[in-house]
Amino acid sequence: MSTRREFITLLGGAAAWPIAVSAQQPERARRIGVLMSTGAGGSEVEARVAAFLAGLQQLGWTDGRNARIETRWGGGDAEQIRKHVAALVSFDPDVILAVGTQTAGPLLEATRIIPIVFVQVADPVGAGFVDSLARPAGNATGFANFEYGISSKWLELLKEIAPRLTRVAVLRDPSVASGTGQLGAIQSVAPSFAVELTSIDLRGASGIERALTAFARKPTGGLIVTAGNLGVVHRDLILALAARHELPACFSDRIFVDQGGLISYGPDRIDQYRRAAGYVNRVLRGERPADLPVQVPTKYELAINLKTAKALGLTVPDKLLARADEVIE
């Protein structure tokens, strides 16, 4: 009797197994796409991605546990980026992190349904990514690089560190609205610094080399590289040309100064990636990009490379050094 009773009890328990197992099934891992505009590698780029992943983890999302993160690297190649866009859209993610105008544009051409959080976009309204900063209205939101007025700061800093400059070449991407906008802001203050500007389009490497070499034939020249993916992609060439022709140069991104550039002023990119993790988290938890306003940077950083200044025969003013967030010696 006791054996039969034990068997019935066991059978009754087994009947409940499917219900118990079903109740304990883990939540579906959420899919997160990441599309980088540059290639992989480099300490600064790796630090930005690490900040994004760390931000997600702090908010409860871990790759391989409750999230599946698919990262693609564009390498500055438009055709490659479009292939990655197609692959990420077919991945059917819950949200995509898009880095730069060069990735956000193709993604929004491919989908107006999948939520997109962008970073490092100079002019999301002018590019047509959102209706306005306060009310994005579509499936994208994120973090703008800066307001165009910041661009004039690059010329101010360049004249402060190299006061004898009378000519400045401005490298910009003419294919995006932000390239024209940044150039316009610099042009508006150039007369007050007694500087003649030469606009150089960021296209192929050979074109950049020809234009900068021609510009450097006359003395008292300097260089500004505006914010944008193409400048970062061609940074090794640009830095080499600036050193070869002894051109004091100002950049929008500290990644240049870390690799030998003279001076940079721009938003803290790592902070943007960290904050982007917060927006991705909010989307994963049910909020719509249309309801999340585009944010502008809250932190800017000034970086100076003293080794490069010395090579150029420049003495960095003490007041400028005191304002710097990062000094490379």
What attributes does this structure have?
single chain, 329 residues, Rossmann fold, 7-stranded mixed beta sheet, 13 helices, 12 strands
Question: What is the element layout, followed by pairings?
Answer:
Elements: H1 2-23, E1 30-36, H2 43-58, E2 67-73, H3 78-90, E3 95-99, H4 101-110, E4 116-121, E5 140-144, H5 151-161, E6 167-172, H6 177-189, E7 196-201, H7 205-215, E8 221-225, H8 229-233, H9 235-244, E9 249-251, H10 254-258, E10 263-267, H11 269-284, E11 300-305, H12 306-311, H13 318-323, E12 326-328
Parallel strand pairs: 1-2, 1-3, 3-4, 4-5, 6-7, 6-8, 8-9, 9-10, 11-12
Antiparallel strand pairs: 10-11
Helix pairs in contact: 2-11, 3-4, 5-6, 7-9
The CATH architecture category of the largest domain equals: 3-Layer(aba) Sandwich
Structural class: alpha/beta
Average pLDDT score: 89
Percentage of residues assigned to helices: 40-55%
CATH superfamily of the largest domain: Response regulator
The total beta strand count reads 12
CATH fold category name of the largest domain: Rossmann fold
Order of helices and strands: HEHEHEHEEHEHEHEHHEHEHEHHE
What percent strand?
A: 15-25%
Shape: elongated
Number of helices: 13
Structurally, how many domains make up the residues? 2
Between the first and last Cα atoms, what is the distance in angstroms?
Answer: 87 Å
Unreliable segments of 5+ consecutive residues: 1-24
Largest beta-sheet details = 7 strands, mixed
